[in-house]
Amino acid sequence: MAKLYFHYSTMNAGKSTLLLQAAHNYRERGMETFLMTAQVDDRAGDGTIASRIGIGQRAATFTPETDMMAAVTARLEQGPVACAFVDEAQFLTKAQVWQLARVVDDIDVPVMCYGLRVDFRGELFPGSAALLALADEMREVRTICHCGKKATMVVRQDGEGRVVTEGEQVQIGGNETYVSLCRRHWREAVGDRG
Questions:
Q1: DSSP 58-91
Q2: What is the per-residue pLDDT across 7-44, written as a single tens digit (0 to 9) for each?
Q3: Where does residue 79 rank: exposed (0-12), middle (13-18), buried (19+ CB within 10 A)?
Q4: What pLDDT is attached to residue 5?
Q5: Which of 28, 32, 65, 88 is catalytic?
Q6: Across the strands, what pairs with 85?
Q7: Does 95 have pLDDT greater than 70?
Q8: Mean pLDDT calculated for residue range 162-174
Q9: Domain map of the chain by residue range?
């Protein structure tokens, strides 16, 4: 029975690595997969899911206008799909998460989504909020703060390493832009906004 999964964490926890490993495991057993990633995040190149440890895989891209049910259905016309994988799932819209739920419910294809839970302001991304509400199973991918505690938050830094507390929710970046922290150190970094 197919399920909708949400694997979430902060930056640099290894979400893309886990996605690529899971997709490889399917292919190694002769089962085809369908990989998708957000077009807005082209750090590894357009249509590429890549990990900081150096592995990568080509993928279809989605924008906020993409009908995810139609994308999976079109892929199924080329042959069976054992599992659909979505990287950068925080960039999905609420409607797209519902479309992925229909992929699971109506055409019985499991969907594994990987993404951030909260942004640099400590607020849920729309796609993550919808996944938290609709996913059949959720799994936290853990990483650590510089103090050794579990990191659950992320700060955004400018070019000089100063913490930024205002701005657009989406700004593509990696280690040069974002740092994962525990809640206590995040509060210290952003000036205890509670």
A1: E-EEE-TT--HHHHHHHHHTTS--SEEEEESGGG
A2: 999 877 778 889 899 999 999 999 999 999 998 776 66
A3: exposed
A4: 97
A5: 88
A6: 35, 112
A7: yes
A8: 63
A9: 4-141
Residue range 75-98: mean pLDDT, rounded: 96
- Give the separation between CA 10 and CA 4, rounded to whole angstroms: 20
Tell me: pLDDT of 171 over 60: no
CA atoms of 13 and 41, how far apart (whole Å): 17
One-letter amino acid of 54: G
**CB-based contacts of 2: which residues, under 8 Å, 6+ apart?**
103, 104, 105, 108, 109, 110, 111
Q: Sign of torsion, CA 69 24 132 176?
A: negative
pLDDT digits (tens, 9 = 90+) for 113-143: 999 898 888 889 999 999 999 999 999 988 8
Q: What is the mean pLDDT of the chain?
A: 87
The backbone torsions φ and ψ at residue 106, rounded to the nearest 5 degrees and listed phi first, read -95, -30
User: Is 188 an active-site residue?
Assistant: no
**Checking DSSP bridges between strand 4-9 and strand 111-116, what pairing results, if any?**
parallel
Q: Measure the CA angle with vertex 9, ends 130 and 141; round to 5°.
A: 115
Give me the sign of the Cα torsion angle 81, 19, 128, 170: negative
In the CATH scheme, what architecture does the domain 4-141 have? 3-Layer(aba) Sandwich (3.40)
For the entire predicted model, the pTM comes to 0.85
* Residue pair 91/23 in contact by the 8 Å Cβ criterion: no
Of 41, 44, 69, nearest to 57 by C-alpha is 44
